[in-house]
Give the backbone structure.
Amino acid sequence: MGNKEAASGEKLYQMRKAKLDEQAAAGRIRYPNDFSPTHAAATLAQAEPDSTPVRVAGRIMLIRQMGKSAFATLADASGHIQLHAAVAEDGCRDCLDRLGELDLGDIVGATGSLFRTRRGELTIALTELRLLAKCLRPPPEKHKGLVDPELRSRKRHLALMSDPAERQRFRKRSAIIASLRAFFDERGYLEVETPMMHPIAGGAAARPFCTRHNSLDMQLYLRIAPELYLKRLLVGGYERVYEINRSFRNEGVSTRHNPEFTMLEFYAAYRRHTDMMDLTEELFAQLAERFADDGRVEWLGHSINLASGWRRIGLIDAIAEYNGLSPEQARDEQVLTERLAGFAGDKAAAAAAGRPSLGQLQMLLFDKTVAGKLIDPTFVTDFPASVSPLARRADDDPEIAERFELYIGGCEMANGFSELNDPAIQAQVFRAQAAAAAAGDEEAMHYDADYIEALEAAMPPAAGEGIGIDRLVMLMLGCSSIREVMLFPLVRPAAEKAG
RNA sequence: GGGUCGUUAGCUCAGCUGGUAGAGCAGCGGACUUUUAAUCCGUUGGUCACAGGUUCGAUCCCUGUACGACCCA
């Protein structure tokens, strides 16, 4: 290795690689796997210094060399511990040399005994130091870490290794999901896994990803929702089921959308949509107790109170209230169309200029003028049946579905309803949806004869709900972008360097 | 999809009304036996995202493209 190498990116890589080669040339195994730690860094911090040898393994984060003595900071999953080597100490000369050969980011195994420095820091006096895995790429800046949000997503391993808060965030995500499982397990729900590859993409209004099975010569879709399979399980006799897993929607990417996302769906026989709203409040109360201070979270610039007793408001009333209309006006196609026309050049205005149903007009105006203003948790109820193809119709009004959506911080968090279990009505809805699809509606559902046949075997009366887990985690952790709570969000390929 | 802003060393960032670039960290060389973002001295490192245009001359002005951030849809 030359002494005066240029320090550009490629050179930095070559110099580190040369150091690894030197290790091998000195007779040491390049990537040894026989080092077994006795302690985690954090458990050492609680132990009293004595002469018993300890072994820890982890990544070198800092090195401070002082001629005949040197310190380093080693980080493992639990925390960090300081290492020390000096010429005068027994068996330590070799360690001082080894330490001098290291680069920031290298993974090492350290053996030695504990002592405290003058400043009181617990430190391992090294008796052996082994390079376990060479870090060939320079790690991020040692104080500020990786700042660029693009790089943080693209090279998550670098963001994680250099930022303990980043590691902590994803630990919390796991803890939230574990809490969800515990909540449903305690209440007798069975966790199941249903197919992610569907012959017909159903259960939601969304464009699917297509794929193909070669040997069956079969077109398949990545699921947009697990709903229709979970309800088949109700037919089969499981009375309470839930699934936490990925769904896929072939739509845009934004701070609240990723093409693959994690959804919780749960179903209970002999329950109604109102029971699901109660259960949801209970669930959030439990999460807030564990993950939010005083039941409040700061999210998207709002201070949100998650305490139970959430507002429940009918869709018509909500539209009326936020638009200064009477409920009668909120049911008037002409009034709704006029209001939507105010959003000139807008998708909503364009859609309203087509031939939408009354329910579609109401949903457009709701999305435009109400949804974003529902900051504290709010259940919106009584959706139009025409936009709720899998929900049960109210007994006293077939135009209204027994359905609700939950809004928090202006963001849709959950969608639930009493399930439509009358196969005749479901078949009729599918036929209407299929007609809309044939007419060009890319989000309309297709006729699912297999699902109708399942309903014909009798599905018990039931209610179900879906909760977007990524948004739930965003809420609980106060994150403003879905990419902050997904380890590996979808990113475009990096731009080519060469022109 | 639309608007605004951004892209400069491995990382974090400066760079004025146009005269081909600087710092900190990392790296390299040296000093230093209890440091804590160690310190001190010296030093390497750049197709200024990419492609065009204007100009005697472009990191800077203009156009386009790629990627991203924020806002709107």
